[in-house]
Structure formats: structure tokens, C-alpha cells
């Protein structure tokens, strides 16, 4: 017999349907909680796209990727620390042999001049050499005055004389031998004469011919 309430109405029994115990998991438009990898996937895709865009922009500006430029810089640093080869031994030997051959070829050409200079002594001034001062001018006593200039300079064998043969056109100092060349040059310098020549017709080893 059904139970009744105090107010005299009859109570309805409780009826359970399928919605009171829904199945586990998503049903229809309702979905359950998603896992962490699934939720992080969109952010990961955004980061990857950003990195790819950055690499593309870098390559467009610099012309190479970052790791390629790093490899190039590393190669430059390594090459800068490597010892530089100035010249190989095979290259240095021929050059040394060539220089020795050149020196050997030059030595014979230099040896004759060296021997000649060592065999012939340099001319020296000999103030004891006999010097004749010849007056080719019409000035009386001109040769004597020039003789005194040489005596005052230290010459001890100077004579003043008149000409006895052909005379040159200008004042000239003559000398016989090559050994008297330095003496003749000094005599010309003391007497103010610029013409100096070697002559076999000189009356003395050195003679100064005074002309107007």
C-alpha cells in the first residue's frame, strides 16, 4: 500500500533515468580535460615558426646561416694561429747557390782592377822634383816672381828661365812621367794655371809655361 503524507496526499515514488549516471569521458559536445602535451602543442608550433622566420631573415641579410658564419670565423682564427711558411728549404737552396755563382762570376772581373790598383801606387806630391818656370810673356821678371811662389810653398828645385822652343797658346804645366802628375797638378794650382798635360818634350820633370 502506497505511503501517504501528513496532508493526505499520496507521495510519488523516485524514478532514476540514464542522465543520473553519465558515462566517463566526453559525450556529445562536452569534452573531458586535455593532457599537457596537447595543450602545449600550439605554443610549440608558434615558437618553431618564429625560429624559422628568424633564420630566414638572417640568411637574407648576411647571405649565410649562423652556423656557417661561425664555421668560417673558426677557420680564420685557426689559420691566423698557424705558422706562416716564409720560404721552403728547396727554394732557399737554389737562391743561395745562385748568389754564390753570381759572386764567383763577379770576383774575376774585380780581381784585375784590384791587382792593378795595388801594384800601381797612388801619385804623391814631391816638392823636391825639378821644376822649370818658363816666361812666355813680355813681362820682365814674371817667371822669377812665380818661382818665388813655389819656393814659398816648399819647392826646393825651382828655376826661372826663358823659352827655347814652341810655346802653347795658353799657360800650361807639363810633366814627363805619371809619377810627377800630382806634383804638376799642385804647381798648376799654386800658379793659377788650369791646363795640365803629360808631354815627352818637357825640358824638366815638371815645367810651367807662363803665357798671357
From TrEMBL:
This is LytR C-terminal domain-containing protein. Gene3D superfamilies: 3.30.70.2390. Residues 129-206 form the LytR/CpsA/Psr regulator C-terminal domain. The chain crosses the membrane at residues 40-61. InterPro entries: LytR/CpsA/Psr_C (IPR027381). Residues 1-12 have a biased composition (Polar residues). Keywords: Membrane, Transmembrane, Transmembrane helix. Pfam families: LytR_C. Residues 86-123 have a biased composition (Low complexity). Residues 1-31, 78-126 are annotated as: Disordered.
Amino acid at each position: 500500500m502506497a505511503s501517504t503524507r501528513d496532508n493526505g496526499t499520496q507521495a510519488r515514488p523516485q524514478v532514476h533515468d540514464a542522465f543520473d549516471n553519465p558515462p566517463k569521458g566526453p559525450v556529445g559536445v562536452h569534452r573531458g580535460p586535455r593532457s599537457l602535451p596537447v595543450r602545449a602543442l600550439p605554443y610549440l608550433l608558434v615558437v618553431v615558426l618564429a625560429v624559422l622566420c628568424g633564420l630566414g631573415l638572417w640568411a637574407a641579410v648576411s647571405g649565410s646561416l649562423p652556423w656557417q658564419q661561425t664555421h668560417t670565423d673558426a677557420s680564420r682564427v685557426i689559420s691566423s694561429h698557424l705558422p706562416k711558411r716564409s720560404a721552403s728549404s728547396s727554394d732557399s737552396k737554389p737562391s743561395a747557390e745562385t748568389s754564390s755563382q753570381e759572386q764567383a762570376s763577379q770576383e774575376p772581373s774585380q780581381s784585375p782592377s784590384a791587382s792593378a790598383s795595388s801594384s800601381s801606387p797612388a801619385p804623391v806630391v814631391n816638392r823636391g822634383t825639378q821644376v822649370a818656370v818658363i816666361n812666355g810673356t813680355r813681362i820682365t821678371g814674371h817667371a822669377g816672381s812665380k818661382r818665388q811662389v813655389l819656393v814659398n810653398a816648399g819647392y826646393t828645385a825651382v828655376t826661372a828661365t826663358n823659352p827655347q822652343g814652341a810655346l802653347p797658346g795658353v799657360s800650361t804645366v807639363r810633366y814627363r812621367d805619371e809619377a810627377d802628375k800630382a806634383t804638376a797638378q799642385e804647381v798648376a794650382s799654386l800658379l793659377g794655371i788650369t791646363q795640365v798635360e803629360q808631354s815627352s818634350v818637357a825640358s824638366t820633370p815638371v815645367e810651367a809655361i807662363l803665357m798671357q
